[in-house]
């Protein structure tokens, strides 16, 4: 290992009266009469011969203006420690020396030893300054051209609204879990402010937060997931000295899966009394779903769409974007290959983002009958409209043949449900209900999972298996019957 020598000395800016030459270290005022250093005159320096440049030129590490001899020695030792990290490897010594020289010329603090050690360990060119978090996040997102548009929009929103404003100016290799937790603390403070203003009796205070939403726990988890994904690529990058994905160590309250709750008679009575909705995800009973579909028959251009979602659990975008070309009524099957995704109010047509989402579902005889009748009705209107008809090729269209906007379908769904007096669910609640109905009817969970487009049967079973109280009640009675010695059928 190379031994690095250096020196610490004191000098001043005094000059000879006759020649004007600098006295430097020879100024007699630097010491007192007893030979001790004069603390009121001059300042301390250190210097050390650095490894030569790539071109073979000699150079020195030299810095002055230091307040004490101890400070000069400390900084000299710091430089020696940095150079020792190269362990005698010539190319690495040059890089470390370049880093030291850049700091000295710029009058910046010397690089931290641990930081340089981490850069060396990452195998990167230690002279290259790691990017700021905002720079890396934008570079990361731009480097993913194959992202689904909806996913890209979600990532972009997280980066733009939260990660960049709160973390953007931190260097990516210096980002720590405490920085991210501080960001979420600020977000929660803003949530409290919004809620307090909404409850204020002052109209101006309420108006000040109009349009501002409360950031839910699920959104916080998605923001952390975006950062975790970006930092995973940073850890894998050979050009960045990032060795730990700190987002994985950020503490957030656990976010339990939202399991659907059914609108039982007791829950409906409570809702009718004071508007209480007992859960974030609600589904109708089979009787309530039948009531909705019977009333929806009055809306000829929407009933078949709602029926298909209620029976087969299609996602809204899958139903809105379904083409006749993928609908095989003779076989009684539908191929799910496209979906309409809503971004703000704009829409795009894309493929389902997961392999499980691209699937084939089998139709029951009643649904085939409804779709055949709907196709005849649609064709009659197409012929009557002539050139005014918009040829989209979609299964579900408006009166002029154009496709439905997903938001309009949701609005109509809520409007119809309210007109019937049914307790509130979202349009996606029809999909939840279809899954619960299929499992309650005894359909194998693998079949249900596949037709819903879930990646695993575990998710399907864990989320929907015990939604309907009648099913759980039947299972409980069957268990009790076994104890009585009179087993009964659960089916």
Automatic annotation (TrEMBL):
Record domain Tyr recombinase: where: 279-477
Q: Which domain of life is it from?
A: Bacteria
Q: Where is the Core-binding (CB) domain?
A: 127-235
One Pfam family per UniProt:
Phage_int_SAM_3
Q: Which UniProt keywords apply?
A: DNA integration, DNA recombination, DNA-binding
Q: Which family does it belong to?
A: Belongs to the 'phage' integrase family.
> What's this protein's name?
Tyrosine-type recombinase/integrase
Source species, please? Nocardiopsis lambiniae
Identify the taxonomic lineage of the organism of origin: Bacteria, Bacillati, Actinomycetota, Actinomycetes, Streptosporangiales
């Amino acid at each position: 290992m190379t031994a690095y020598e250096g020196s610490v000395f004191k000098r001043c800016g005094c000059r000879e009266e006759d020649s004007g030459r600098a006295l430097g270290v020879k100024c007699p005022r630097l010491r007192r009469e007893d030979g001790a250093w004069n603390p009121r005159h001059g300042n301390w320096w250190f210097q050390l011969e650095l490894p030569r440049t790539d071109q073979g030129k000699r150079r020195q590490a030299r810095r002055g203006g230091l307040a004490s001899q101890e400070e000069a020695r400390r900084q000299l030792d710091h430089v020696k420690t940095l150079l020792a990290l190269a362990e005698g490897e010539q190319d690495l010594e040059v890089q470390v020396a370049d880093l030291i020289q850049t700091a000295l010329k710029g009058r910046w603090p010397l690089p931290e030893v641990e930081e340089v050690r981490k850069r060396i360990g990452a195998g990167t060119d230690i002279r290259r300054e790691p990017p700021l978090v905002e720079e890396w996040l934008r570079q990361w997102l731009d480097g993913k051209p194959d992202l689904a548009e909806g996913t890209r929009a979600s990532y972009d929103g997280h980066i733009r609204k939260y990660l960049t404003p709160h973390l953007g100016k931190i260097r990516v290799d210096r980002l720590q879990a405490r920085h991210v937790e501080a960001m979420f603390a600020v977000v929660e403070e803003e949530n409290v402010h919004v809620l307090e203003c909404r409850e204020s009796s002052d109209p101006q205070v309420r108006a000040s937060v109009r349009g501002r939403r409360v950031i839910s726990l699920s959104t916080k988890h998605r923001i952390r997931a975006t950062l975790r994904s970006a930092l995973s690529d940073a850890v894998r990058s050979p050009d960045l000295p990032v060795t730990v994905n700190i987002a994985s160590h950020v503490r957030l309250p656990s976010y339990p899966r939202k399991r659907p709750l059914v609108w039982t008679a007791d829950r409906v009575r409570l809702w009718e009394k004071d508007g209480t909705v007992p859960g974030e995800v609600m589904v109708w009973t089979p009787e309530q779903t039948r009531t909705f579909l019977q009333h929806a028959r009055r809306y000829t251009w929407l009933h078949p769409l709602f029926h298909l979602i209620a029976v087969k659990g299609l996602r809204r975008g899958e139903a809105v974007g379904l083409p006749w070309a993928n609908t095989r009524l003779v076989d009684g099957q539908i191929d799910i290959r496209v979906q309409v995704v809503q971004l703000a109010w704009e829409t795009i047509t894309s493929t389902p983002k997961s392999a499980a989402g691209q699937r084939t579902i089998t139709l029951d005889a009643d649904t085939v009958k409804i779709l055949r009748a709907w196709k005849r009705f649609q064709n009659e209107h197409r012929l009557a409209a002539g050139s005014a008809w918009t040829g989209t090729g979609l299964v579900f269209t408006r009166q002029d043949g154009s496709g439905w906007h997903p938001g309009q379908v949701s609005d109509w769904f809520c409007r119809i449900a309210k007109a019937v007096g049914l307790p509130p669910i979202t349009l996606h609640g029809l999909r939840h209900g279809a899954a619960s109905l299929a499992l309650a009817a005894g359909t194998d969970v693998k079949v249900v999972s596949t037709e819903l487009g879930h990646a695993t049967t575990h998710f399907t079973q864990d989320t929907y298996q015990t939604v309907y109280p009648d099913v759980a009640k039947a299972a409980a009675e069957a268990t009790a019957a076994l104890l009585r010695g009179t087993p009964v059928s659960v089916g």
